[in-house]
Design brief:
Length: 380
């Protein structure tokens, strides 16, 4: 394609989810083999050093240690009046800290920018206004409800996961319906293909009669792992637990120590690239209610249990998923014992959860988004 027809996919490493969504779209585009010039970048690599370091640090500090404060900021900044007053300062901060990102856009002049995070739209809006650079900006919302941060005049199309996400944009933020497409949240294609559960049980050395729980804390191992393991240990059913602690070495060591002193069958990992295989062998998922993690579980037809999800986007995700019957939310870790036992012994309850999953999931999201992006690039 001509230089002006480049496609740039952008994310920010505030957590792992935005990057995974971008990689899923890139993989789907490459699979189309359309000869499209595709670039993928982390926008933080093009920001000033202090901003690049502090942005993910502050975010992870808030969600891991000060989640109540994160929740306060999240809900406060989603109020229309507060957003009206604060949004100009947020946009100014993004622009002032992103001179190299502005330069990158001006040099590459992409036909289409696909954004899975909300920094890029602020930069695109600034570049369009000051330098008259026209580009088609596709904003992929990676949660099941829309927050004020996702809103930008620069966005040509919002791609959302659910009718409720669309409703947020239309009713609260006045976005025209023709600018919104319900396609789902993109995950890697491997989550959308059928897995042989028996094969992976043998691979992980798990007996056929064992009820398998995947305990996944996202890229940074978030969650009360030890308390959950203690609750699971109190169950009366044959149980195997696969823990994924991400980049959290401390969490991995804690689980390893628990494993040594307990008889429950535990398979413990740090960060892995085969979450699809772990989910394929599992009967239920316990963990984060992040947009990507939950979408991966939905694609794998895996019921979910959420324990006091982080206030903000994760609690909203959990609420939508449980209201649609695809998951269960518990207030106390101790409730897990009863819930897991009921899922093991009640086919009716498990089948109801599977039915709820089918009402929410969109397993071809990445491919559908790729088709739309290619169409936009051709028409630019």
């Amino acid at each position: 394609m001509d230089k002006k027809n480049k496609i740039i996919i952008t994310y920010a490493t505030a957590g792992i989810g935005h990057k995974k969504a971008s990689l899923a779209i890139k993989a789907a585009l490459e699979k189309k083999n359309m000869g499209v010039d595709i670039k993928i970048i982390d926008v933080l690599d093009y920001t000033k050093p202090f901003f690049k370091r502090s942005y993910p640090y502050v975010y992870l500090l808030l969600i891991n240690r000060l989640s109540f404060l994160w929740g306060f900021f999240y809900y406060s900044l989603d109020v229309k009046l507060v957003n009206f007053l604060c949004a100009p300062f947020r946009r100014l901060m993004h622009v002032m800290n992103s001179p190299n990102l502005i330069k990158y856009l001006l040099e590459n002049k992409p036909a289409v920018v696909v954004s899975t995070h909300f920094i890029m739209p602020d930069i695109c809006a600034y570049v369009a206004k000051k330098y008259k650079l026209k580009t088609t900006l596709i904003q992929v919302v990676t949660d099941y409800r829309a927050h004020a941060f996702w809103i930008s005049d620069a966005v040509s199309t919002y791609i959302v996961a659910h009718e409720n996400t669309k409703r947020d944009l239309v009713r609260k933020w006045g976005i025209k319906t023709e600018k919104i497409k319900i396609m789902g949240i993109p995950v890697e294609p491997k989550f959308s293909v059928k897995h042989d559960k028996g094969f992976f049980r043998k691979k992980f050395n798990i007996s056929s009669d064992s009820f398998v729980v995947s305990l996944i804390g996202g890229g940074y191992g978030v969650g009360p792992f030890l308390k959950i393991l203690e609750a699971l240990d109190r169950t009366t059913v044959p149980l195997s637990v696969i823990t994924v602690c991400g980049h959290n070495k401390k969490r991995y060591d804690q689980v390893a120590a628990f494993k040594k002193r307990d008889s429950m069958h535990i398979i413990n990992y740090t960060y892995v690239n085969n979450v699809d295989e772990i989910m394929a062998v599992s009967d239920v998922y316990i963990g984060k209610a992040g947009g990507i993690s939950t979408t991966e579980a939905l694609a794998m037809d895996l019921p979910m249990i959420f324990i006091s999800p982080i206030p903000g986007q994760e609690s909203r995700n959990a609420k939508l998923i449980t209201r649609n019957g695809a998951g269960i939310r518990v207030k106390k870790v101790s409730e897990i014992t009863r819930v897991v036992e009921s899922l093991k012994t009640s086919d009716i309850r498990m089948n109801l959860l599977k039915k709820g999953i089918k009402n929410v999931r969109r397993i071809n999201a990445a491919c559908d988004i790729a088709d739309f992006v290619i169409e936009c690039a051709k028409n630019t």
